[in-house]
Every structure is written in C-alpha cells, then in structure tokens.
Amino acid sequence: MRNYYRRSYARMRGYYMPPHFMEIPYWIPIVASMLPDEHFRKELMIVDDLDIAHNELAEAANSDLFFFSALDANIEQLLHLASTGAKMIVGGYVDPGVLAEFPNVRFLHDVTQLPITLPRSRPRNTLDYRLFDGLQCIPRFSMSSGCSFRCKFCTVPTQVVPADPEGYESEIAAFKPLDFHLVFLDDKSFGDPVANNWRDLRQVRNLFESMHQGFEGFIIQTPPSVASRSGFLDQCRDMGVRYVEFGVETAHDGLLKYLRKPFRTKHLYAASETIRELGLYVIPNFIMGIPGDDYRGTVRWVEEFVDIMPAVNINWLAAHFGNERGDLGLPVETFGDRDQNTIAKSWLAKDETTAGLAAVEEIYAITESYWHDRVTYPSERATVR
Known about the structure:
The protein is an alpha/beta fold. Helix content is 30%, strand content 13%. The chain has a six-stranded parallel β-sheet. A three-stranded parallel β-sheet has the order 1-2-3, with helices on one face. Strands 5-6 form a two-stranded antiparallel ribbon. Strand 7, helix 7 and strand 8 form a beta-alpha-beta unit. Helix 12 runs parallel beside helix 13. It is globular.
C-alpha cells in the first residue's frame, strides 16, 4: 500500500508524502500549542525501531513526558514502550482499560483535559507546527468539526461546530514552517448544510495565497449526496478546490444502507460525472471486508471513472472502540477486529478475505494501468514536482 501511494502521489500535482507517515498527525500541533515555550522544551520522536525507542524511554529523565496517540493498530507496541516506566500521556480510540496496569500512563479522553492533567499547560492555542519545520507535506485546515451524518462505523462526533472566522488568519499563518502546495480541508463532510460557513473557503483561499508562496488549492472530503447538489462543486472549484475525496466505502446500495451512509450509487455516479465535467479529480475511500460485499459494483465504478481517479484509499471494516452511534452486528473478539489496517476479521471466512484482497489488487491495477504515464492537471505538467 505504501508503494502504491508513493507511485500515485508522484503523478498527482501538489501531493507530498512525508517519509515516515502519510500526513502530519493533527493532534501533535494541537498539543504543541498547549505547551508554552517558557515551561516546556518540545521534541518530535519518530519510532522507526521499536527496540531503540524502548531503550530511549527506559533511559528517560524523570522530568521527561511522552505523548502518544493510541489505536488498536499500535496498542501492542505502545504497551511495550509503557513497560519502560517512562511517564506517558495517551489519548485515542482504545479501551483505556488496556493501560490500567501502568501507573506511569495517564489516559486523556479529550485533549481539552490536558490543562487539568498537566500543570503549566494551557487551553488549545494557535496550532504549533515548528516540530515539522521544512517538512514537505499536505497540512490540514479546519473550517468546522464534527459531522451531522451518522455512519455506523464512524467515531466522529455528530455535533457540527463551525470554526470562528476570526481565527482563520492566525491558523493559516501557523503553517509557515511547512513546505506545501495543497491543503486538506479537515471538515469531515465539507458542504454539510449544518456547517453553514463552507462558502468562507474563498476568503480562506485568499489568505493562503497571500501568506504562502506556491499555494495551489484544496483537497476536500464530502459525501456524493452533497457533491451532487446542483452547482456545489462548481462553487468549490471556483474557490480553489482541486481534488475531492469521497467516503464511498462500497458501490452497493444494500451495504450503503447497512452502514447508514448518506447517499446511494445514483449520487455517486452523478457526482462523478460532475467532477469529470469540471476537470477535477476524485480520490475515493473504500472499506473492504463488509459482510456480503462481492466488490463487483465498486470495481465497475472504478473502471468507469478511472480517468478522474489518480489514486484510491483503502481500509478494512473495523468496529472502533468508542463508537456509540450504531451496532454493526459484528463479533468483536480481537484487536484486529478494531483495526482498519488489518485484514483478519472474526466475521470474515478465508474465502471472503481472499475476495477482498483480490478486489484491492484489481482496483490498484486498474488505476495504475491508466495513470502510469499520466499526471493530474497535465496542462501544468512542466511544474509538477
């Protein structure tokens, strides 16, 4: 998957893939902003080798404090590091009970609790990206938090809170340490009618252009039902949107209903046609391993719209800890069942896992075959990095 992304991003104008991660973990600049320089010296620790990291934590000073984001995908490694006795503050989508045996670990259910937990820290401030100085990346910018849609598998809060426009300028200025051409709009469903500030994107684009030389536009994520609204994507393009991510999951109406997705395949096809007409590009997010999926509809849609699809994002269905909005009716017996990066699931038989893997390979092959000698925005090919 990593190799697929590296090849794909090389063909996508404005895309950067940092060497250690897909994108800057958003929580790090948030937490860094809450640790004022007069009280804290901050360093970024990237774990490439678990044994080396274990030794470093074992030798840490008593005043050292390590922050980690925990997921079922990394919890076993985190438990190994916690065994060093180093002081840790951990947050994320895991059962805090798995960390209960370590008195050196404090679990935060919400980052807003940090000032209560850690003396001399403060409430969230303008994001601090200095730990990533010079990094070639695609940073995230938020115009709203939450999502009014209630997809069963998702853990995003359902209360939508628009950002304060008074904060746009300072948040955009905070990206100064970074090297980027595109910005990912972190709004979970851009254009969500509940977040009535999405038209502020024109103002946001103007601020980025005035502060960051080489800025080229935005990547948004939105459901096809929003994207297919008359005139919506036209306005997005005119405000600087260059790529659109769809949370497709599967092109199967029955399974979209099961997942409580806010669209059907008719919206997906209509939105895709509009993207093609407007000269934009789509990056779909797929979920493999949904019980009963034969992947035929998904592969067919990829084949029909591969000319606007330079890359795809693929995960496997997971029953995330803390998801309270709907029962998927699936057994949750292992960490793998809660890990979207793991193919082994309690609810899948071996032949179902094999079918999912085969669909992944076919989707990769379709997109790579079409795009191997092409780039996005070819009229600007001479300046593509």
